[in-house]
Each structure stands twice: as structure tokens, then as C-alpha cells.
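Each field is listed here:
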Amino acid sequence: MGILSKKWALLIISAIGNNKKLRYNELQKKLGEISPKTLADRLKELENANLIKREAFAEIPPRVEYSLTEEGVELRSAIMPLMKWASSRDFRK
């Protein structure tokens, strides 16, 4: 639960799940305001928690893709109703 309560973690899981696989720069563009350091930190934490998988390709230039693990897919399925509910509300009141 610790990693999931951190800012951006659920949005990263959602973005990767919506796209099946994403590269670092694609993910950063989709999230918008996230700093490169925060994104890198969250990706490492989510990978260590076995929620995402990092796949590096031996190419020049190097290519890395992120996808959800089986546990990540299960988590995403569980949190999607909450995220849909939250996005339909205006919490700025």
C-alpha cells in the first residue's frame, strides 16, 4: 500500500494499462507535469513491487518499454472504478 499512496503511482499504472506498453518519454508526455526524477523513482518502485515490468532492448539507441505485470493488471482492474469516480468529481470546491 505504501507505493500506491505515493503521488503519480496510480496514474502511471493507469497510463501503462491503457496503452499496454509505453516508453519512458511517451509515459512522461501522457502524465504531463511529472518531473523526470519522480517518474524514474516511481517506475523503479512499481517494478520492485512487481506491478510493472521493464524490458530493455539491446539496440542503438537503447530502448526500454514498460508494461503491467499480472499483478499490475489485477490492481488496475480494481482501481479503475475509483479513478472513474474521482475524474467525474470536482474536488476544487
